[in-house]
Fold these 4 entries.
Entry 1:
Amino acid sequence: MSRRREPVPFAFVAESERYRSNVTPPPPDRASRSEVAGRALVGLTVAAGLVGALLFGWPALQTAGPQSAHHTQQSEARDGR
């Protein structure tokens, strides 16, 4: 294997880092009322879903209190059934 000893010119890389365009991009289009209303509706739906999931899951997150101490499971095998 022979290695190349000659330098490779990478001046174009240095020039590309300094390059600045004088062309400005066009301003973004403003969203219409229906687009804004749609985004708000999607956001409200997601928020309502999270709140609903929390409300429905809240009883499962509660720790066992004194009222659950009286509830015990009984096996049917013990009754001979």
Note: Helices lie at 11-18, 33-61.
Entry 2:
Amino acid sequence: MSAMPWHAEHWSRLQARRARDAMPHALLLCGPVGLGKRDFMRRFAQGLLCTQAQDGMACGQCRSCQLFAAGTHPDFATLSFGLRKDGVQRSEIVVDQIRELSARLAMSSQFGGWQIVCIDPADAMNAAAANALLKTLEEPSPQTLLLLVADAPWRLPQTIRSRCQRIEFHLPPREDALAWLQQQGVADASAALDAAGGNPGLARAWVQEGALARRQEVRKDLGALAAGRGEAMEVARRWLDNEPGQRLWFAAQAVADEVKGRAAAGTGPLASQLDTEALDQWYMAANRTRESLRGPLRGDLLLLELLARWR
């Protein structure tokens, strides 16, 4: 788990608090996917539990580190999606899981140090689970630490957010992101970073999975539909079969570029027949559709409706 350069300031602040014996009892690590907040969480937790840590960094050799690496450290646990009685994985964190967590934190540390529990994704707690967590947050046991990891912290109740020390991961400056991508050996780092909206971790992951080719496909699809070629239903089917959320991200980007192109040169790369106001509305609709794909509505109908509006 190597540190990403934009982690340094958060790391220094937490280590300073640890040195002052002023650690909070709950941390909320939040920000966009791809910025390494889960790696940060694990490095920090391992450093707290390590018996020979230096500047908060775990030694990797002691008994505590060996147990942590094996996923069997008795004083560290991660709470995530559990299984229902029928064996199907849940899509939310439920109240019984939080009650079990609270009971665990009420017990003494087996190694005589910190007892740490990570809830990930914390924004997947349902209302009953969040309410049950409040008591633990309001009455923390000594040397216990709750680590809440959330990609969408706004989904957490304000009562939860207000009781956590917030560590927010932001996109690094472009030059820093490009330098890191180049160090990681990412080809065409600039195009990848543009595709990922300035998010270097996402850019690296997307290059590894071939997302730049998918981005070009989306632009070709939109251009063809704008010219009256192709069928919206066939495009909707292809998008739904292969990373539909990512394709909608790329579609919204393409429309934003269309608007910029019109402002600069009077025409955009997609040659859409929609006016600028309609393009703005379609951009917002694409982002709403991306969110809606996580819900119970039929994805094919959502995409078909959106693409029909494009034509």
Note: The chain has a mean pLDDT of 92.
Entry 3:
Amino acid sequence: MKTIVTVQYAVTAFADWIEPTNAELDAIEQEMPAIQADVDLLDAQIITLDRIPTELDNRRLRRARRRALAARIALANGTAGAALPGGAA
């Protein structure tokens, strides 16, 4: 009895369409401030998972939420390239 083996991975592993296009990379680059703001918000939320949030934690969460919202608004308004106020959380 012969074993039937698929060769689809070998056929499609090097196809041109697997790599992102320049337009897709540009879109990701344009969304990067909003993505980074969301990551900062998640970091602030993760910090408070295993303990009762302190006043500093609450401020960090509020600041991160404001930055994420501002980044999303800037992205929606088409000004994603503009610098957002604030620094690291």
Note: Helices lie at 8-12, 22-47, 55-77.
Entry 4:
Amino acid sequence: MALQITKNHEIFEIKGSIVAENAQSLQHHFEKLLFDCDKVILCIDNVKKIDAFGVTVLTKLFRNAMKNNKIFFIIGKENKNVSNAFGNVSYILRSDFV
């Protein structure tokens, strides 16, 4: 399944799989957004699959945002497909952003 990103009320919803084939383009897309914006909220509730490359990309984005004093939330803690893949870095996942 191709990766689809939609914006819904200031939240970027990702549908599909975050895997090696698309992780790099996802990273570039959100790096640019983080450069231009002070806050980015990702919802990965509808991600069907994530591999190690996807986890690495989202972890890098999170750490770079923190380093640059940007707000970067990843909503998707209830998605077991995703939360299991994050393992010991699951602290970057949130249930919501409020």
Note: Residues 20-36 form the longest helix (17 residues).
